[in-house]
Amino acid sequence: MTYTNFTVDTDADGIALVTWDMPEKSMNVFTEEVMRELDAIVDATVADEKVKGVVFTSGKDSFSGGADITMLQKMLKAFARDKAKDPEKATKALFDNAGYMSGLFRKIETCGKPWVSAINGTCMGGAFELSLACHGRVAADSDRVKMALPEVKIGIFPGAGGTQRVPRLTDQQQALQMLTSGQSLTPKKAKAMGLIHEIAAPASLVEAAKAMIKGGLKPVAPWDEKGFRLPGGQIYSAAGANLWPAAIAILRRETYGNYPAAAAILKCVYEGLLVPFDTGLRIEQRYFTEIMQTKEAAAMIRSLFVSLQELNKGARRPVGEPETKFKKIGVIGAGFMGAGIAYVTAKAGIPVVLIDRDMEAAEKGKAHSQGLVAAAVKKGRSTAEAGERLLSLITPSADYADLDGADLVIEAVFEDSGVKKLATENAEAVLKSSAVFASNTSTIPITALAKNSARPKNFIGIHFFSPVDRMMLVEIILGKKTGDKALATAIDYVRAIKKTPIVVNDTRGFYVNRCVLRYMSEAYKMLIEGVPAPMIENAARAAGMPVGPLALTDETAVDLAQKIMKQTIRDLGEKAVDPAQMQLIDTMVDTHGRFGRKNGKGFYDYPAKPAKKSLWPGLRDLYPQKAADDIDYEELKQRLLVVIALEAVRVMEEGIVTDPREADVGSILAFGFAPFTGGALSYIDSIGAAEFVAIAKRLQKKYGAEFKAPKLLVDMAAKGETFYQRFDPYAGQSKKAA
After folding, report:
1. Among 176, 312, 388, 618, whose Cα sits 20 to 30 Å from the Cα of 398?
2. What is the model's pTM?
3. Which spans in 379-483 are helix H?
């Protein structure tokens, strides 16, 4: 029998090699067709007496990325459609669909013939669950091999046996950590945990897998053997009594109850280990069905998987523009940002020239990359050889002539229009006419900077966030004259360095900074009102933000906040900044010399390690403090999210961002807007425009104009629209799940 997605070759020893290689796909994923074919392969190999065992591997560089999430979206759409007619029947259908993959893997596990998974590359989600259902697991000894069950990161959890097999193969503490964090495992770590059996050289991976079968591998899972004992001891044991109360407390501390899938993982493991394995699978299936119906799962799947993938693949790239294959990149300015840009460029395998005023400054910029490389080697995330290759791609220079031949030049000099003008003119004097020039400005409009260019069509903004090597979002800013070639080149570059691009039209603060400044500003207002600083920070974390607004101000620098406020007043007038907030920041900087983390004192104090940072006690003396019982804590949480979301609406209303996917993904990747909501616009959609307008009006009456609902939102409320309806990113395309 022939298959579309698999080949099956049986050798003289009776070992069937099943190779998964989906046509026209860069990575194997589970689809309905793949699962049907795999089901048929199980039946065929069981029925064939010549087959003594099966080795399952991939024909691609990676093993598999897991399930095709659009398949889950299809299930959810069918559920939503059928629920209106017959809720019970719709839920039963969802339950049955959710259990199909789990049932298939259990079929492999109990088929009576040994299966060995030969893991040659990235093995994620359902693919790792399939491997765990095999009787043997061998992974290639390669940096390309990463194994994980990362579903919790998109609002769901491993629902094909992962929550039952992992804690039966390793101790419960390690199992919970892996499952609730979605952490990736190297072959060495996976073997130490007992999740794989062997590590083999890549060239002999399949032979090592076949050797396991030839060596008499039993076609029985450990939990199906009589007398099986859990590796970490029973739930009701001294070890269990120590683990579970702490695990529940840690989950609450880390998630504030915002992530139902993480809580469901604990329930699946706890309840599943108290019953026989097949009953545990049913428990997992029940919770998976429940989680699939949550608004958190729908929002996170859409933003953090579907939309993120689409943007990473260049959803906003102009059609028809040829792809740029970068042979050389120039970076002007070897300070912290420029040095970081040079590092990520070289890490992507692209030669980069790092320019500064003199060789000493340029060499110092390269030293930043040397430090990052050394740290990666020390942590085992890179090898010395790979580090040397990376560093060899960075050429420090003080001569603009070395930019000759560059496809793209990124200017990352000081936020000074005069300095940027000089850098632009010097670079364009040596660049070929087709080269694109980009500014990494965070405050100066691109249209204004493009006036310094002899070819404004090839001038664009590429705004990185700090630290460049860790932040995954890049804003691409269009000036009024920016052409499609420049946009396509910028997107190609951001994709090449494996970051996510969002396209933003020109405005003060672009998109991200406008939202972030609102977040910080609302915290300043709270301080001035007398809200204790710990309540502000805790409310932000409880609302789902990874970093409180005062801590974020420290990270970006309190004196920078002062500079931004002063520049805003110069440009827009005194009324553009709340004088009480200006006074607060002036007091912090000018009176107390508190600049933020960079000088060890801001809203927080930063003692020498290993001591942890703590809020500056002097904050209590700046304003009369309200009693905690007189403060509505839930309202604090709401204010911090609503003020950001309203700014995101204004950005959409002004046409600065035009695609809701970019607004949502950008808000999460740039400053961590409560990921469980799916992003700033999805947060509004989940509440409903009409209800959100009512909330905004109440907050406006109580706290001021920053909560005034934009006309766009009022209009959407009247029409009952969502952002993904009003600004349908798929309009004109064959509809994908939105």
Report:
1. 388
2. 0.90
3. 384-392, 417-428, 446-450
